[in-house]
Design goal:
20% of the residues lie in helices and 21% in strands. The protein is α+β, with helices and mostly antiparallel strands. A hairpin with a 2-residue loop joins strand 2 and strand 3.
Length: 306
């Protein structure tokens, strides 16, 4: 879903206050739901390259609790008519969208659904919460009650997953409010260029990748990466994690957004599994950018290949 639009920013103080309350676990909960090409660094879409083992199960598994009713002004109401939210409701509850167009539900779980992205291809999918969650600006996402949607996206799109990405290297991403057109949270499950993978490994070898979340915002871990869409180089903050068992939204909020006085609504977040000559090495590059950076970007579309 590569488009422009959206005006639902929230004041930073309001987000921080709500984030603190959520971190204390003072949330009501509910649940909704229902029933390649090879590259020089290994091919996630090619089962012969790895295998790609699963990550350890993230904490707090099981059904996903949803934002409580008092957060609907920030996270969305179940009565909203966003087309992606209507698609989710069709997959989870069988409610046909008013347009009459029934989406192809590639995977449906209590926590999330997986749909085709646009343009439709074997390396362009979307993971959407079964809950009503507008997007990255929803403060519920930084709470320990939220499902680990990033882990689920990786497990779905990896080689051997239920909806595997047929591309040499996989990328996951979420857009800021201003860089998206549709307003049900969706993580893109797509490809990244082999040159992006090599660039990240070169930066790591040069000591330009943060080894700890607390260092993520430091200037030495900001670097230019060439855009896959031909729009030039863009600046990203780069972190390496050994697994996707932590809440990436909370890590971003705690270690970048709040210390730098930024807004979650303006952030883009991208995950690139780290590859070696023998395949996936069970670690991940976590990239963040926004318009406050020189040559920054607020869209994941610069790096993902749809």
């Amino acid at each position: 879903m590569n488009a422009i639009g959206g005006t639902h920013h929230m004041p930073r103080r309001q987000f921080v206050a709500l984030s603190g309350a959520l971190g204390a676990g003072a949330l009501l909960t509910g649940a909704s739901g229902s029933a390649s090409a090879a590259g020089p660094l290994g091919a996630l879409g090619d089962p012969s390259c790895c295998p790609c083992p699963t990550d350890p199960a993230p904490p707090g598994g099981g059904q996903s609790p949803c934002p409580p009713p008092q957060m609907q002004n920030l996270c969305g109401s179940p009565a909203d008519t966003d087309p992606l939210w209507q698609d989710v409701q069709y997959c989870t509850q069988g409610i046909v969208p008013p347009s009459g167009q029934r989406p192809v539900c590639l995977k449906t779980t209590p926590n999330y659904v997986v749909l085709h992205g646009k343009p439709e291809s074997p390396h362009n999918y979307l993971l959407l919460p079964s809950c009503r969650i507008r997007g990255i600006e929803c403060p519920f996402l930084v709470s320990p009650n939220a499902a680990n949607y990033w882990h689920e996206a990786w497990e779905t799109g990896r080689s051997g997953g239920d909806v595997p990405v047929q591309y040499a290297n996989i990328g996951l991403g979420i857009n800021s409010v201003s860089a998206r057109r549709l307003h049900q949270m969706h993580i893109h499950i797509a490809g990244v260029l082999p040159s992006t993978q090599r660039r990240l490994q070169d930066l790591e070898a040069a000591g330009r990748v943060a080894p700890q979340p607390s260092q993520w915002r430091a200037p030495q871990y900001q670097a230019l990466i060439t855009s896959a869409d031909g729009s030039g180089d863009r600046t990203y903050r780069i972190l390496r994690l050994d697994a996707l068992t932590q809440n990436l939204f909370a890590l971003l909020n705690q270690n970048v957004v709040r210390p730098l006085g930024l807004d979650m609504a303006g952030q883009t977040l991208i995950v690139v599994p780290r590859m070696t000559a023998t395949g996936f090495d069970r670690s991940f590059y976590i990239l963040n950018s926004d318009s406050s950076l020189p040559s920054g970007t607020n869209t994941c579309d610069r790096l993902l290949v749809y």
